[in-house]
Write a structure and sequence with these properties.
6 helices; 40% helix
């Protein structure tokens, strides 16, 4: 029996005017149960949002999407992959969250910044360590990948 999804359960359409596109794998079972998405800033999204704020980025001004399907986490969502490619072609900075997504983006030929997934285990899990990691990746790449710097 298929369950009807509410508007809250539908992934948000990314905006091409946003600076960074954070690409995750798929929603966790807990995220689906709570009906939350990256934009909500809960679960792994909270860790990411806190780190973005720490480096001076407003999480509400970024784009988030998942590359794999929630209903089949082994299958790449081809429409999501096409959207990532279109956003990259339009000048957005693509950020791959985690090794699985980074490998899929590389196979698809999509240039991206590699970022450890905010739900990763180990020492990176400490908020300050993740914040420092995000800062090192985004700030170090900003001069090369910041869409505003391209016009200069």
């Amino acid at each position: 029996m298929l369950q009807q999804l509410s508007d809250k359960d539908q992934p948000r359409a990314p905006s091409s005017s946003r600076r960074y596109v954070f690409v995750g794998q798929c929603r966790s079972k807990r995220a689906m149960h709570l009906r939350v998405h990256w934009e909500d800033g809960r679960l792994a999204g909270k860790t990411l949002h806190d780190a973005l704020r720490a480096v001076g980025l407003d999480p509400r001004e970024q784009t988030y999407l998942n590359l794999y399907r929630d209903d089949d986490p082994q299958a790449i969502d081809q429409s999501a992959l096409a959207r990532v490619g279109a956003l990259a072609d339009a000048g957005a900075v693509i950020v791959g969250l985690g090794k699985v997504v980074q490998a899929a983006l590389a196979r698809a030929g999509v240039a991206h910044l590699p970022l450890v997934h905010p739900a990763a285990r180990g020492t990176i899990r400490a908020r300050h360590a993740y914040r420092d990691h995000v800062a090192s990746v985004l700030i170090a790449a900003r001069g090369v990948t910041d869409p505003e710097s391209r016009a200069a």
